[in-house]
Amino acid sequence: MPRLENAALSVSELNRRARQALEQDLGEVWVEGELSGVSRPGSGHIYFTLKDDRAQLRCALFRPRVRFVAAPLRDGDRVKVRGQVSLFEPRGDYQLIVEAVQAAGEGELLAAFERLKARLAVEGVFANARPLPYPPRHLLVLTSPTGAAIRDVLAVLAARWPLTQVTLIPVPVQGREAAPALISALGLLNRQPALDPAHDAILITRGGGSLEDLWAFNDEHLARAIFHSRLPVMSAVGHEVDVTLADFAADMRAPTPSAAAEQLVPDRHERRHRLERLAERLIRAQRARLETEAQRLDHLRARLRHPGEVLAARRRQLAELEGRLRRAMQARLDGEQRREQHLRQRLVLRSPGRLVEQAEQRLTRARGRLHQAMPRELAHHRERLGGLVRELQAVSPLAVLGRGYAILEDEQGQVIRRASEVVPGQALEARLGEGRLALRVRESDGE
Fold it and tell me: 218 with 242: CB under 8 angstroms?
């Protein structure tokens, strides 16, 4: 039924109903696309557009949810976002209120990256840590000739240390051809006789990008080629948050191409200022040294005396030293004589004849004690042995046999303890106190 003119909705009411309809019908959804127009106003919220080749969608990521997004959002990144479809009523803008963001396909790539990283680490591919020459005389740069990375590197080198010679080795840094091209270039640069002794180091670099853009630098064969490089290698791939296997395999890593150039060479202005400060310190030190030596020369002039006075003083000193030497020698001789006399007295007390005489006296006394102790000890042991013999005879089986008992044994020598162990006609042997008897069983009462 057509609506009456006076019953028309206000713009705000229509937008409110549209927002409610969108939120109730669509609810929470996942959307994948490319980031564009990322902005971060002072409020702390993040606004961006998610687009594909045919459409685009405004998105808002409010500040409470920003801290849960690990990676920075950059234009051109392909992401998947989860959010609530809604409408911004004041402007009537259809938008997505974002709750979560993750890189599209990043989970699978990161898993593959971690598996390969763990395997190469176990193999020792990340063990390189050779120092790079500082500064290098001739630097070989492997990168795209048209990228921003080479411009940044050359600009920093020219500003800081223009003495370093740079040779660009143009290679692709993205796509399927990148890794094979980098490996081939490394092999060529490290092959004799192509290995020029003037070449100091290799820099592998490129600018930032998504995980997919940088994936060529996670190639296993490229990491091995960097590890086996005879020239030291620095890797500077992507931004500060980007890490690749090439970074781990290299001898050094820099977070960005510009940072790599800053690490490779010193700042010539700083060196110039340092040289100027050192020159000033040297001039001050020379001036102070000259002033000190001048004062020392004046002091030595004041102390300078006639050679005759010096010789007379030396003669007096020599005479004093001669007297001290004589007194010291006499004191030493007196001490040695006293020591000799003391040693002679000790030698008399410890003479070998006297020691032998004392030892013979101790031996005589010990021999007398031994002669007295031996008969007593023999009698004691003889008496103890007799007791043991009597105890042994009391428990000996032979003593039992001597009292008229006998031991029956079968043909195998086993002792017969019960009548049930024999059968009629069985041959037995009886062991008596003296001698043995051969027997044969006539009958047995054993059960």
Answer: no
Burial class of 343 by CB neighbour count within 10 A (0 to 12, 13 to 18, 19+)? exposed
In terms of Cβ atoms closer than 10 Å to its own Cβ (0-12, 13-18, 19+), residue 293 is exposed
Nearest-angstrom CA–CA distance, 61 and 17: 23
| Ordered mean pLDDT values, 10 residues apiece, the chain (447 residues) | 61 77 77 88 89 87 82 80 84 85 70 86 91 92 93 93 92 91 92 65 88 86 94 90 89 93 92 91 90 83 77 88 91 91 81 79 87 86 86 73 78 83 85 83 75
CATH 3.40.50.261 fits 109-266, yes or no: yes
SS3 percent helix, strand, coil of the chain, rounded to 5, is 50, 20, 30
Residue 306: how many other CB atoms lie within 10 Å: 8
The DSSP secondary-structure symbol of 144 reads -
CATH topology of domain 10-104: OB fold (Dihydrolipoamide Acetyltransferase, E2P) (2.40.50)
Tokens standing for residue 292? 């000190």
The tokens describing 360, both together, are: 């013979």
> Distance between CA atoms of 172 and 197, rounded to whole angstroms?
26
